[in-house]
Amino acid sequence: MFRSFSVFNYRVWFFGALVSNVGAWMQATALSWVVLTGLTDNDAGAMGVTMALQFAPPLLLVGVTGWVADRFDRRRLLVVTQSSLMLVGLVIGTLLLTGVMTLPLMYVFAFTLGMISAFDNPARQAFVSDIVAREIAANAVALNAASFNGARMIGPAAAGIVIVAVGTGWVFFINAATFLAMIVALFLIRPGELIPRVTSPGAARLADGFRYVRGRPDLMVTFAMVFLLGAFGMNFPIFASTMAIEFGRDADGYGLLSSILAIGSLAGALMAARRDRARIRVVIFGAGLFAAAAAVSAFMPDYWLYAVTLMFTGFAVVTTLTTANGYVQTTTDPALRGRVLALYMAILMGGTPIGAPIVGWVADQFGPRAAIGLGAVAAFVAFGVGVTWMLVSGRVHRSSSRRFALSLDETRPISVVAPEEFSDEVAGTTPISLPDATSDRPRRSR
């Protein structure tokens, strides 16, 4: 489960990310709560707009951000993006503490955070493949998810306590301080132990990532499922905050729901880390489980029963997304990995600008349970897309040993051949095969 920890650079990266992720979850909780209760009168629609502004840039800039992640040194790029996110957090905290923050101004900062994250996310995802070998990349991705969701267990609950005790603005200052852990980790990483970057003649073309995905039906199906979940099913800030209000809870009750969700998420990430490789059938299974868990949670009559269902929801969504991320990373041409991951993150996060305002409007007009039901329907459609593709692709067939049983083939591994780095030395010493002169001679007819 923890085999990636044998790599020094990954250990440094993991613990730096864990501290930073705690702060990130604290800030996300505070941002949602201040929009819902501080800058508006429980307006879930405004909250949906805020989420849309945060997640729109990765979709709008997908070609550029992926190219940047492939073209430039990812470690230095991450130092820049992490420092920028820290600075924005300090500014937001200052404006909140001085009482001059307004909803339009918060919209501007939400979009700014989205712009920076659009460059940070693909670089951060692809950087995992720079730290560990491809053979354990899926394990490293799953452990990253465990770090992310382990922080999710702590961050939202801690944010709720801080908000109730001293106010929302201080949460942003705490988050800014946690960014230092990631920045220090990036400087501690040993550059000489990083996996050599793969380059190719087509590395400068922005559209190569789109063409590559278009030729991979399995990735197209994975991206379609991820889009549906990201757009309508993963609006947890809207779901949890409006349900907390419906149950008569304050910010600490909202933060606790987010932390309880993370218990199931952490379990899903650790189980993904145990698997030898990422399989697309697990992505499909996770989408179906998410649909069922979300549908059940929409009918829970009290706070604690709803909280229990969130553990299953968290397990399902992290199983789906962690496996999908690992599958994309380990089956993509290394020279195009940054651009393909940028497209993956754009589809995952870019669905939010479409779905979050709709989910927020449904929550305002029909209540939070209807909004959760909409997410469950979207997850069921995603499950249907995956099952349909599985049947059409021939992976499901009648069992040869049992008369009325079906068997499911293993996910077919996709061979990845990494192109060699070009150098004059390689070009000068590589033998060139010549055609056999005798093979071109016409044969005599008898």
TrEMBL record:
<keyword id="KW-1003">Cell membrane</keyword>
<feature type="transmembrane region" description="Helical">
    <location>
        <begin position="280"/>
        <end position="300"/>
    </location>
</feature>
<keyword id="KW-0813">Transport</keyword>
<dbReference type="InterPro" id="IPR020846">
    <property type="entry name" value="MFS_dom"/>
</dbReference>
<dbReference type="InterPro" id="IPR010290">
    <property type="entry name" value="TM_effector"/>
</dbReference>
<feature type="transmembrane region" description="Helical">
    <location>
        <begin position="219"/>
        <end position="241"/>
    </location>
</feature>
<keyword id="KW-0472">Membrane</keyword>
<dbReference type="InterPro" id="IPR036259">
    <property type="entry name" value="MFS_trans_sf"/>
</dbReference>
<feature type="transmembrane region" description="Helical">
    <location>
        <begin position="253"/>
        <end position="273"/>
    </location>
</feature>
<keyword id="KW-1133">Transmembrane helix</keyword>
<feature type="transmembrane region" description="Helical">
    <location>
        <begin position="55"/>
        <end position="72"/>
    </location>
</feature>
<feature type="transmembrane region" description="Helical">
    <location>
        <begin position="340"/>
        <end position="363"/>
    </location>
</feature>
<keyword id="KW-0812">Transmembrane</keyword>
<feature type="domain" description="Major facilitator superfamily (MFS) profile">
    <location>
        <begin position="1"/>
        <end position="396"/>
    </location>
</feature>
<feature type="transmembrane region" description="Helical">
    <location>
        <begin position="306"/>
        <end position="328"/>
    </location>
</feature>
<feature type="transmembrane region" description="Helical">
    <location>
        <begin position="84"/>
        <end position="110"/>
    </location>
</feature>
<feature type="region of interest" description="Disordered">
    <location>
        <begin position="426"/>
        <end position="446"/>
    </location>
</feature>
<feature type="transmembrane region" description="Helical">
    <location>
        <begin position="369"/>
        <end position="392"/>
    </location>
</feature>
<feature type="transmembrane region" description="Helical">
    <location>
        <begin position="12"/>
        <end position="35"/>
    </location>
</feature>
<dbReference type="Pfam" id="PF05977">
    <property type="entry name" value="MFS_3"/>
</dbReference>
<protein>
    <submittedName>
        <fullName>MFS transporter</fullName>
    </submittedName>
</protein>
<feature type="transmembrane region" description="Helical">
    <location>
        <begin position="157"/>
        <end position="189"/>
    </location>
</feature>
